[in-house]
Design a protein that fits this description.
This protein is an alpha/beta fold and 346 residues long. It is 31% helix and 16% strand. It starts with 7 loop residues before the first strand and ends with a helix. The relative contact order is 0.14. The structure holds guanosine-5'-triphosphate and magnesium ion (MG). Residues 75-76, 127-128, 158, 160 line the site of magnesium ion. It comes from Rhizocola hellebori.
Length: 346
């Protein structure tokens, strides 16, 4: 796709559009940057007319991450917690990596609606609206390597769980995603020793896999029963709500300190989370691991506690193990080096 020739427009405060006039000979780059700050590109993909940040196409093949899960499973708080950790990550600099927002306006909006209320004021965020503004990304960042490797854009789609359940043209972003985070609400999982609770699962996991099966059906003609080549992380979120026996692996991962940068233990953790879900009536949550590859599994909590009257209590509010699933995805996408992160941890 030739991004430079994709239609660019400025969206006025009243919602009307005006074409972005290309940089003129009299204008320097700073003047043009100021004038194009509110510019977007009209996405040439399928579905209703929608937009992507203007600078998006200046990078190579972007990483497009979708968060999947029914309403209230914790997608938005998990994403906000992840991005909060990424913003304040001096350790990234020490491995020669920098994250910079892709688009200043998108960053300001996300900071005002998500980072500031949730992480600074500990406020519960509203459910993601069914219909969001015309710029579809929830957030987008760029990753720069000091060693001269080309920078990469990383975009996140976090839509309402109810919208994900409704298969239709408004979920067109699913045809563009190339990495996924599936969020499991741990409050739906049987507690240790509990009998009789029905098997649980998530209808949006199935809908998304169905959609990807259709997109990748050509693979069936080449290989018997192929995996879909989309890396995914299955995250057992709200892990602060889990009950576990003293000797259970859950305690090993979630009962101790944070190990966000220790990626060498990911396959061990994945095996434990897999066994945990399978043995507690959550086998249906494992479907992404049976169809997509590679897949890693994690425990995380965006809050470490329950909210009361719209806020999370300051005493226990913190983000636990939220970055590891995202770093694991970036390693699987080939833009971060697990070894470097491991050294940092050691
Ligand atoms: N205890 C606990 N509660 C959580 C955690 N994360 C989310 N919650 C609770 O779950 C509620 C829903 O979280 P959201 O992140 O808004 O859920 P969502 O999946 O984005 O929901 P939709 O936007 O409706 O699709 C929050 O308001 C919190 O009360 C967590 O890590 N621990
Ligand atoms: Mg949400």
């Amino acid at each position: 796709m030739v991004w430079a020739s994709t239609e660019a427009v400025i969206i006025n405060p009243d919602g009307s559009e005006q074409p972005l006039v290309p940089r003129t000979a009299q204008e320097d780059h700073t003047q043009f940057a100021a004038r194009s700050m509110r510019a977007v590109r009209v996405c040439p993909g399928p579905g209703d007319r929608h937009y992507v940040p203007y600078q998006y196409g200046d990078y190579g093949e972007p990483i497009i991450i979708g968060l999947i899960g029914e309403s209230t499973v914790g997608k938005t708080l998990l994403l906000t917690a992840m991005l909060g950790r990424l913003q304040n990550a001096p350790w990234l600099d020490s491995i020669g990596v920098q994250m910079r927002p892709l688009d200043a306006a998108l960053h300001q909006r996300f900071a005002a609606t998500h980072l500031e209320p949730f992480l600074k004021r500990r406020a519960v965020l509203d459910a993601t609206p069914l219909h969001q503004s015309s710029v579809e990304f929830t957030y987008a960042t760029t990753l720069h390597h000091r060693d001269g490797r080309p920078p990469v854009a990383i975009a996140f789609f976090d839509v309402s769980g109810d919208r994900l359940r409704d298969p239709g043209p408004h979920n067109a972003f699913l045809s563009a995603v190339n990495a996924l985070i599936f969020v499991v609400d741990s409050t739906t999982i049987r507690s240790a020793g509990e009998q009789g609770r029905a098997e649980t699962g998530d209808s949006t996991f199935e809908l998304v896999i169905d959609q990807l099966n259709r997109k990748y059906q050509y693979l069936d003609q080449q290989f018997p029963d192929p995996f879909i080549p989309i890396p995914a992380a299955i995250v057992v979120g709200k892990a602060d709500r889990l009950t576990y026996d003293r000797d259970e692996p859950t305690k090993r991962w979630f009962g101790v300190g944070d190990d966000d940068l220790e990626l060498s233990t990911i396959s061990e953790e994945s095996a434990d989370v897999y066994a945990f879900l399978a043995s507690r009536g959550g086998g249906a949550y494992l479907k992404p691991a049976l169809r997509l590859a590679p897949v890693t599994l994690h425990y995380a909590s965006a809050t470490n506690c329950q909210s009361a009257d719209g806020f999370f209590p300051s005493r226990s509010f913190r983000q636990r193990r939220v970055l590891k699933p995202l770093l694991s995805l970036l390693v699987m996408k080939g833009v971060l080096d697990a070894g470097q992160l491991g050294q940092l941890h050691g």
